[in-house]
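Researcher: Next entry in the queue.
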Amino acid sequence: MAEPRKPDLVALAEPNPFRAAWWLRGGHRQTVWGRLTRPRRSIAFRREILATPDGDSLILDWMDGPSGSPILLVLHGLEGSSYSVYVQGMLAQASARGWRGVAMNFRSCARDPGNLDRMIPNDRARLYHSGETEDLNFLLRTIAAREKSPTLVAAGASLGGNVLLKWLGETADPTALLRSAVSLSAPYDLAAGARHLESGFRRLYLEPFLKTLRPKALLAVRRFPEAAARIDVEGVRRSRTLREFDDAATAPLHGFAGADDYYAKSSSLQFLSRIRTPTLCISAVDDPFLPEPVLGRARSEASAAVEFLAPLRGGHIGFVEGPWPWRARFWSEETAIAYLARHLR
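Model: Structure for this entry, 345 residues:
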C-alpha cells in the first residue's frame, strides 16, 4: 500500500505565513533579540520534584489551570530551563487557551527561582544530552497514570525538539500518550550542526554554552567517582567547541564511544521516518545552528505524519514579527500552539 502523500508546505503555511519583522532582518538578529528583551518570569510556576527510577529527580515547573484541561509539556534547549523565554512564551499561549502546562527541566538544568543564574545540580553522575529520552518517557507515563484520560501534547525547542522527535520515532505507542507534537528549530543531524557552529560568526554562540557546560562536567567529576572515571578532565578544560566537549564529557559519561558515536545514535534524523503521531517541525532556512541541506534531508526522510514549516527567515527559535519592537510577536510559538490545538478537536 502506498504511503499517503505528505502535506504541501505552502498549503500548510498559507493561513499564517511568517514575515520577519522589518526592523529585525537576518538569522542572527532573529536568534538573539528575544533572548535579550523578553521576560523570563511571565509564568507563575508550581515546582514539583519527581523521583526517578534510578534514584535521581526531575525538577518540573507546572503552570496550573482548569482541572481536566489539556496539558502542554515543553522541553527546553541546550542549557536552557523552564525560565527560557521561548518556554515561557509557549506556556503563555497555552494558558490563554485554558490549558495547563509543565516544563521539564533536564537534569542539572533547573534554575533556582530566587536566582535564575544558578542551576540546581542533580543527584547522579548522569546528566542529559540530545538523545536522552528515558526521562521524557518516564514523565509522560507518570502524568498519564495520575490523570484520568489525560489529554497531552508536547513541544520541544532545539535540543528538546531533537529529544522529542527521537522519542516519537523510537516509542512503540506514542499516540497512547501524546495527541500531537511540535519541534522548534530542532538540529536533526547533531554532527552536521556541531560542525556548522565551528565556522565564521557562528562560533560566537559556542562559548555561552560551554561557559556552563564545562563547570557542570567538572562538578560531576568532583562529586561522583563514576564521572571521574569516565570524563576527560583536561579535555573538558581545553574544549572550545561542542564536539570537543562532547568527546571529553557527554559521550563517555553516557556510554558512547565518542562524539561521533553519540551524534550518530542520538540524531533525530534517523527516527523521523518512524513517527506516526501528528507532528509539526518548524525550522528557518537561515537558522545559524542548522546547515540548510540538513533541513532538506529531514523533510525527505520524514513520514507522512510529519509536517514541515520552513520559512526563509526566522533564525534559531526566533521568528519575530510585528510592526515595531514594542509590538513584537513570536510566530513559531503561536503557530506551534495553534497546531496542537487543532489536533485536540
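Model: The chain has two domains: 9-189+268-342, 197-266.
Researcher: Noted, moving on.
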